[in-house]
Amino acid sequence: MRREWIAAAAFVAVACGGADADDHAAAAPDPNDWDAVVEQARGATVNLHMWGGSTEINAFVDDHYAPRLADEHDITLNRVPLADTADAVATVLSELDAGRTTGGAVDLIWINAENFATMDDADALLRDWAPDLPNAELVDWDDPAIAFDAGRPVNGAESPWGSAQFQFVYDAARHDLDELPASYAELADWIVANPGRFTYPSPPAFHGTRFVKQWFYELSGGPDRWLDGFDEDGYAEVSGELWDLLDELKPYLWREGETYPNDIADLDRLFANGEVDLTFTQLPAGIEAQIDAGVFPETARPYVFDTGGIGDTHYLAIPVNASAPAAAMVVANLVLEPDLQVAKLDPANGWGDGIVIEPDRMGADARDALRAVEASLGDAAVDQGELADAQLPETVGAYTDAIDRDWDRYVRQGQPRG
Question: What are phi and psi of 152, to 5 degrees?
């Protein structure tokens, strides 16, 4: 229901607020005059709206970005935690619908995929600023993984922050890796053979949607046919097979599929408590930070299916009605600093998120630090070469919306399909 409301709000914003949004965007700070941007940003507060479900990520933002912004730029970073990024999208679109084209509540959003598509369609984001940030020269904008967000050109409306890739997590104290499924076909058999030992977050929770989408990929023979436009007939055929399969497996899930975890934090707790045998992670550098924080047992290990795992880039974007767009640009530029990109990758700092700048464009000290972090990744991380070989692209956003909608209808609610 939430996504349907957002789509409606997006239409209204385009119809009623598009001209005002364009006028405001034209008056946005110019990152080509960086000294002026920095001066305009001084003393500002940036309201960064971001998913708040990870204590470790929240702490990294508070401990690494906020002090630097305060000390170097006199900027206050106000992290606004969200249960769902769609909440921030809805806030911006409702403000634009009400004619609030300046002074908005959201200055910066952690965003990608369907949420970006919704705002892009509504002309609700500043455009053509990200490639002109000073640190944008460290980014390979010709890389499709950067230049396209779920098949949609970013058009300078998003600045990359990090990268992620879907992996499974198991406990080596309970299972040998060769006992576990290495594909979704094997997973279906494993679920039946191990009743009550598996579940997944309910879509539209991010990890739940991605888990279901990868199953959709495997049933269709791979992602290629889902990367350019929406194939309604093809989607109906493959998704119908998927809903039937997931419905058949419900009695073998945790609590017999009567309920699902709300998000990845809930699933992680079930895993840590020994109630289920698998959970998920998106962290390219592995789960050492979660082990150190006590979220996972010391014997937890990540792995990828033989059929691969979806990887993508996540970004920062500035709404057209942001109160502090100049300061938001300073934040987006800061997170691309080589030392902070390396620190974000290092699980010892609590995150383990992938970098989005090119190592050969870093200085020597940063490259040495990067090599040291990569060399330090042990059993709590998948081999970086293996992870790269297993990476699958993300679909266009329309499939995400359809999967979220139809999973709720046909799996959670058990509605009959026509």
Answer: -110, 130
As given in the structure block, the two tokens for residue 260 are 């699902």
- Phi, psi values for residue 391, rounded to 5°: -70, 135
pTM exceeding 0.90: no
Q: What is the CA radius of gyration of the chain?
A: 21
CB-CB contact of 86 with 106 (8 Å): no
CA 207/CA 185 separation, integer angstroms? 19
Nearest Cα residue to 75 out of 317, 331, 332, 319: 331
| Long-range CB contacts for residues 74-78, cutoff 8 Å, separation at least 24 | 74/42, 74/43, 75/41, 75/42, 75/43, 75/44, 75/45, 75/46, 75/327, 75/330, 75/331, 76/44, 76/45, 76/46, 77/45, 77/46, 77/48, 77/331, 78/45, 78/46, 78/47, 78/48
Annotate 68-96 with three-state secondary structure. HHHHHHCCEEEEEEECCHHHHHHHHHHHH
Angle at 311 between CA 310 and CA 315, to 5 degrees: 135
pLDDT score of 8 more than 80:
no
**Helix H or strand E encompassing 47:** strand 45-51
Give the model confidence (pLDDT) of 132-183 as tens digits.
Answer: 999 999 999 998 889 999 888 999 999 999 999 999 999 999 999 999 999 9
Mean confidence (pLDDT) of the chain:
92
Would you state the structure tokens that stand for residue 239, as one six-digit string? 């998704």
pLDDT tier, 228 (very low <50, low <70, confident <90, very high otherwise): confident
Q: Among residues 49, 69, 32, which one has the least CA distance to residue 330?
A: 69
Taking the C-alpha atoms of residue 11 and residue 9, their distance in angstroms, rounded to an integer, is 5
- Return d(Cα 309, Cα 351) in angstroms, integer: 19
What Å distances lie between residue 347 and 78, 283, 288, CA to CA?
24, 9, 6
Between 259 and 26, whose confidence is greater?
259
Q: Domains in the chain and their CATH numbers?
A: 2-160+315-377 (3.40.190.10), 165-311+392-412 (3.40.190.10)
Nearest partner of 135 among 259, 38, 5, 19, judged by Cα: 38
Residue 27: CB atoms within 10 A of its CB come to 10
DSSP for 204-273, written as a single string: TSHHHHHHHHHHHHHHHTSSGGGSSS--HHHHHHHHHHHHHHHHHHGGGSGGGGS---SSHHHHHHHHHT
> What are the Cα distances from residue 24, in Å, to 41, 102, 405?
17, 8, 34
The tokens describing 61, both together, are 């933002």
